[in-house]
């Protein structure tokens, strides 16, 4: 068994399909399937459970994956140490984040990090869900609540604030909102209830709305609805500068506060490069959030 076999195994395990892994590796899925079958034959055990849904890891595959990830990290760290320029970060770092953070905070922060570290490459995975760091879907992730399980390290980055908002034109064309009870008579923009991936994002009870008329799992889609005057919705204060037509509604009656957390795999505490990047990322997010909320 050689490293190339392990590299292919990891790609299939993460993508859970030959097609997805083949795209990532730029390798024909049929060829990849034969390579995986040959690896299983060499090891004398099935690494995957095949089904119509794709390739899931067997018990033997789970054990191999844990060791393969350690080997992958060791190789990456060794290569990066050799390439690293004095005082600068190099190599690739993948950050997972909800799409609000990914769209309104991380672009500015990570661009500044790359300006200061020309050998650094940053990938942002913007998806409204919890990331599986054990499977290395990302090197680190930003979350809206600290995870309760898993071999993870969690660092609180900062608090952030949200308010009810709408366009002036919407407010002028619809019944006045003087109390929270008045919200019930308005069209609400928000999350799809059964796709809310974290209870911290369930704002309905605090808004006092019975249902969401225009719903999306994407914060950006919600913001664009609100920008068109489609209704009322909860908006991050740090996103308000990107939608200058929006105004806060009942800011003295309804003000929400939530927190961002930086989550990393427990084994990465010994990785000086990722630890340094994590510190700079958290510092940058705090500064950029404070700047945008003050506008």
From TrEMBL:
Keyword Transcription regulation: yes
Pfam families: HTH_1, LysR_substrate
GO BP annotations, alphabetical order: DNA-templated transcription
Presence of keyword NAD: no
Keyword annotations from UniProtKB, A to Z: DNA-binding, Transcription, Transcription regulation
Domain of life (superkingdom): Bacteria
Annotated ranges, domain HTH lysR-type: 1-58
Any GO MF annotation of the entry: DNA-binding transcription factor activity
Family: Belongs to the LysR transcriptional regulatory family.
PANTHER family listed in its UniProt record: HTH-TYPE TRANSCRIPTIONAL REGULATOR (PTHR30537), TRANSCRIPTIONAL REGULATORY PROTEIN (PTHR30537:SF3)
Name of this chain's protein: LysR family transcriptional regulator
Organism in which the protein naturally occurs: Rhodovulum adriaticum
């Amino acid at each position: 068994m050689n490293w190339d076999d392990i590299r292919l195994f990891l790609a299939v395990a993460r993508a859970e399909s030959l097609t997805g892994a083949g795209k990532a590796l730029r390798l024909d899925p049929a060829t990849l399937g034969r390579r995986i079958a040959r690896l299983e034959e060499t090891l004398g055990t099935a690494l995957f459970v095949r089904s119509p849904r794709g390739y899931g890891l067997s018990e033997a595959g789970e054990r191999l994956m844990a060791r393969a990830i350690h080997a992958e990290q060791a190789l990456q760290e060794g290569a990066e140490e050799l390439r690293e320029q004095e005082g600068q970060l190099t190599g690739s770092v993948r950050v997972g984040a909800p799409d609000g953070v990914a769209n309104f905070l991380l672009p500015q922060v990570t661009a500044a990090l790359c300006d200061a570290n020309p050998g650094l490459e940053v990938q942002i995975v913007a998806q409204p869900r919890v990331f599986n760091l054990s499977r290395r879907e990302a090197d680190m992730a930003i979350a809206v609540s600290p995870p309760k399980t898993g071999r993870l390290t969690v660092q609180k980055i900062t608090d952030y604030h949200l308010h009810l908002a709408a366009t002036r034109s919407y407010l002028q064309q619809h019944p006045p909102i003087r109390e929270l009870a008045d919200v019930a008579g308005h069209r609400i923009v928000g999350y799809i209830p059964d796709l809310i991936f974290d209870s911290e994002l369930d704002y309905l009870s605090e808004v006092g709305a019975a249902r969401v008329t225009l719903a999306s799992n994407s914060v950006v889609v919600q913001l664009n609805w609100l920008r068109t005057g489609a209704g009322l919705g909860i908006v991050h204060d740090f996103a308000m500068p990107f939608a200058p037509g929006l105004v806060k509604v009942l800011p003295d009656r309804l003000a929400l506060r939530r927190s961002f957390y930086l989550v990393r795999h427990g084994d990465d505490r010994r990785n000086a490069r990722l630890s340094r990047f994590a510190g700079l990322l958290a510092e940058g997010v705090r500064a950029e959030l404070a700047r945008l909320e003050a506008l």
